Every structure is written in C-alpha cells, then in structure tokens.
Amino acid sequence: MILLTFLLLTSALDVLQQGSQAESSLSSKLYFASPKEQNGVHNPQHEKIVSVSANGSIHSPKFPHTYPRNTVLVWRLVAAEENVRIQLIFDEKFGLEDAEDGICKYDFVEIEEPSDGTILGRWCGSSSVPGKQLSKANQIRIRFVSDEYFPSEPGFCIHYSLLMPHHPEPATPSLLPPSALPLDLLNNAVAGFSTMEELMRYLEPDRWQLDIEDLYKTTWQLLGKVYIHGRKSRVVDLNLLKEEVRLYSCTPRNFSVSLREELKRTDVIFWPGCLLVKRCGGNCACCNHNCNECQCVPTKVTKKYHEVLQLKHRSGMKGLHKSLTDVLLEHHEECDCLCKENTDR
C-alpha cells in the first residue's frame, strides 16, 4: 500500500514538472516574439523586398474591397541605383479604420525611412488622402497593420516611381545683386514674386525681416495721403492686393494698369507693379447711320489712393531705398457711349 502511494505521488510530480516546463517554454516564446518582431519592422526576413526599376504600386489585400483582419505586411522598396529616390503617391481611393482620439491605433499604413528609422507618417480613416512622400535615399519601407476588429474598405494603394537627383547649377560669381540691376531688369524680376516675404528675401537675403518691420512701423513719416484724407481705415495686405490683381477678370469695368506707365515714373519700381482699377471699356452699340465710331467714355470719375511698395536706387549709395507710398489713380464709376461725329447718345 505504501509503495503504491509513493508511485502515484511520483507520477503526479512528473506531470506537474512537464507542465511547468511546457509553460516556461511557451512563456519564453511569447517573450521573445515582441510586437515589432511580429510586424517585421526590424527583422528583414519578415519584409518583402521589392526591386524598383520602373513605376509600380503596393496595395492592401483585396484592394479596393475590404481588407482582411489580423494582418501585418511590410514592403521594403529598393531602387537598383543608389543615386535615385523613390516617390510615393497614394491613390485617391483610401479608407482604413478610423483613428481614436486622433491617433491611428488599430488599422493603419505607415511609411518609414530605413536609413535612420524615421517614421515619415502613419495614416488611417478616410477623411483625407495622405500626401506625397519621398525617400531620402534609394530605399523606403511601407507597413500595413490591421487588428481583429472592424475592417474597412477600400484599403489603400500606393503608386511608386523613381526620381533622378536634381543637381542645381552652381551660382555664377559674377551675378549682380538685385540692387545693381538696371531698373527695367529689376522690374521684370520683382514682378515674378507672389508675396512680400519672397520679394524681400530676394532683395535683401540678410536683412529681409528687418526691412519688413521697418516698412510697417507706425511713425508719422509713413502716414501717407490715405491717412491724411481719412480714406484708409486699416493696413492693406499687399500680398492679398497683388493676388487680387493676378486673378482679375477683364470685364468692361475692370482693368489692370501698370503703375510705372500710369504715373510716368521710370525712375522707380512699384510692387505690386499693376493695380486693378475701374475704367470704362467694352463695345458700344449707339451709332446711327451717320456715325463712324462710338467710344465708351467716363461720365463720373473718382480718384483713390493706393498704398504700394516703392523701390528706388539710393543717390550715390549702394542698395535700394524701400518705402511704402501712396499713389493716386483714377477710377471710372459711370460710363456712357459717345459717338465720335454725333454727340447724340
């Protein structure tokens, strides 16, 4: 009886020991299988290497239909040549599980820069399509993750292409600074800028911020005629003013005039170089049988001040003098047709 009891206890201990060893082995496997290793981010054997020699695409499984759950896919795009870069453009059809509290926690697509491990972006949801991405070198990594809940559609599709490196031409040492250019050439260069900041950077790269601050200092020297005559209630945004001129539509009442031509000032440059004014124009149908020509002429004229940036060479000095000035321009408020030979209208 004692021997039988001893044998039963020995068998039970063996079973417990084997179970403990199995549990320990399982725990060890779970411990070493970290999430990043499961996702294949740092383990090359889990990546699918895609050799890029022409345009192509990477997409979620079953795109543009619902992608599967519990999926982790990693692609590493590698260009054959080292001196090229890889450009990624997302397809307009894009939709993954929505973010929680603004964070893509569950289903997402992620792009990583392999050279330094930088995450260029992680996206989910369907409210907007991710923007264009560009690798720093000839490789880039794409990772797609979906959890076990709420798969969405259509997933994603990323189109890739190769970009050759751009080699800018070296600056010519003999290139003249803007202030040394003839006014006509400088006028053409100034006309190409869209914002005040871009213009100031071009004119004075080392002190453009100080120049802008000086322009908008509220001192009595800068209070022009528009303030004196009470016709200006706020500071005009010259950038918006120039944009308005650029987008103007040539209708019978709207014209863009060159300030240098309008004011007959060839010794200075204005920015914006053109302003939108109301001027009479368009066709007239008032002529009768004894009228050879009919013109659209103003019957009511008003004059308005406009604040612009003025550039002028300094007398006997290097550089340009910059100031805000007010120019007076005619605006035609009412127009009528007048026959050349017959004044009857």
TrEMBL record:
GO terms for cellular component: extracellular space; membrane. It comes from the Eukaryota. InterPro entries: CUB_dom, Cystine-knot_cytokine, PDGF/VEGF_dom, Sperma_CUB_dom_sf. PANTHER family: PLATELET-DERIVED GROWTH FACTOR, PLATELET-DERIVED GROWTH FACTOR C. It is found in: Secreted. SUPFAM superfamilies: Cystine-knot cytokines, Spermadhesin, CUB domain. Residues 46-163 form the CUB domain. GO terms for biological process: platelet-derived growth factor receptor signaling pathway; positive regulation of cell division; positive regulation of cell migration; positive regulation of cell population proliferation; positive regulation of ERK1 and ERK2 cascade; positive regulation of phosphatidylinositol 3-kinase/protein kinase B signal transduction. Residues 1-22 form the signal peptide. Belongs to the PDGF/VEGF growth factor family. Residues 250-342 form the Platelet-derived growth factor (PDGF) family profile domain. The keyword Secreted applies. This is Platelet-derived growth factor C. It comes from Microcaecilia unicolor. Keywords: Cleavage on pair of basic residues, Developmental protein, Disulfide bond, Glycoprotein, Growth factor, Mitogen, Secreted, Signal. One of its GO terms (molecular function) is growth factor activity.
